Amino acid sequence: MKVAVWKAFHGLLMTLGAAALLAALLLVVANLWVLAQTHARIEQELPLCGAERVAIVFGTSHWTRSGVRNPYFDARMSASARLVRLGRVDHLLLSGDNRTRFYNEPITMWRDLRGRQVADGDMTLDYAGFSTFDTLSRARDVFGVERALLITQAWHLPRALFIADALGLEVTGCAVPSPSRQVSGEWRLQAREWLARVATLGDLYLWGREPYFLGPLEPLEIAPRTWEAWLFPAGEGEPGGGESAVE
Question: What is the pTM (predicted TM-score) of this model?
Answer without folding.
Answer: 0.85
